[in-house]
From TrEMBL:
Main subcellular location of this protein, as a coarse class: membrane
Pfam families per the UniProt record, alphabetical: ABC2_membrane
Transmembrane regions: 20-41, 53-71, 83-105, 112-129, 135-159, 171-193, 222-243
Domain ABC transmembrane type-2: 17-246
Protein name: Transport permease protein
InterPro entries noted in UniProt: ABC-2_transport_permease, ABC2_TM, ABC2_TM_bact-type, ABC_2_transport
Keyword Membrane: yes
Membrane topology: Multi-pass membrane protein
Cellular location(s): Cell inner membrane; Membrane
Length: 251
């Protein structure tokens, strides 16, 4: 446990030392999204027949920030360590692959939640959403951050340079995040695109998280929980296997 805690502490310090970039900047980005989309569409779009568009948008932006920053934390840390050559100092320690997994994923969850909380606090000046089922808010925030933090571990192990890491984020994580219903309800889409949206696991994270605020969602939160939980177990099994075999970090 002491080894896991030490690596976790090191990873937390890594992003906290540059918190203006890793925490404050994503909060500002989310607020800009809210200002632009909220100003343009407020009063023109009513979601679930009773919820203002700005209130509807806030949980989506919070969850989007959680997911993107959880992924960025673990992926950037591993890639940076590989490129700079500092990974060897962690490899010299007797830490198990489980210690690596929990330290990287745990620090990613913490960063994602900190950014999400910052976004939520700032957006309260624009609209105050309901808290219909707060337990679901916590569950999906934790699961979503853990899933993306685990994906970040896999991406970081796979990438050998920052260009590959950027490609993974720009062509996979970013499109799936933006097409997950952050800015809209999928009920407003044509039937074909509704079907496509249901194939996107990110949609279930956003939808389940939003259910915690409004008590309404496009699919049952239990279905979302089953899909997100299963996805995390699958990617976790892959990440632990890659760490155990030393994929691209032991030569």
């Amino acid at each position: 446990m002491r080894g896991w805690q030490t690596l976790f502490y090191k990873e937390v310090l890594r992003f906290w030392k540059v918190s203006f970039q890793t925490v404050a900047a994503p909060v500002l980005t989310a607020v800009l999204y809210l200002l632009i989309f909220g100003h343009v569409l407020e009063g023109r779009v009513l979601v679930y027949d009773r919820i203002s568009y700005t209130a509807f948008l806030i949980p989506g932006l919070v969850m989007m920030s959680v997911l993107q920053n959880a992924f960025a934390n673990s992926s950037s840390s591993i890639v940076q360590s590989k490129i700079m050559g500092s990974m060897v100092f962690i490899l010299l320690t007797p830490l198990s692959h489980w210690a690596w997994f929990w330290a990287y994923v745990g620090s990613s969850v913490l960063r994602g939640l900190l950014v999400g909380l910052g976004v939520f606090i700032v957006t309260l000046f624009f609209a105050i959403p309901d808290f219909a089922a707060p337990v679901w808010i916590v569950v999906f925030a934790l699961l979503g951050a853990a899933l993306l933090g685990t994906l970040g571990v896999i991406a970081g192990l796979w990438a050998d340079k920052f260009d590959q890491m950027a490609a993974f984020q720009n062509f996979l994580i970013m499109p799936m995040t933006f097409l997950s219903g952050v800015f809209y309800s999928i009920q407003s889409l044509p039937p074909f695109w509704q079907t496509v949206s249901h194939l996107n696991p990110f949609f279930y994270m956003i939808d389940g998280f939003r259910y915690g605020f409004f008590g309404q969602s496009d699919v049952s939160p239990w279905i979302s929980l089953a899909i997100v939980g299963s996805a995390w177990l699958l990617v976790s099994a892959l990440a632990v296997h890659l760490l155990r075999t030393g994929y691209k970090i032991r030569h």
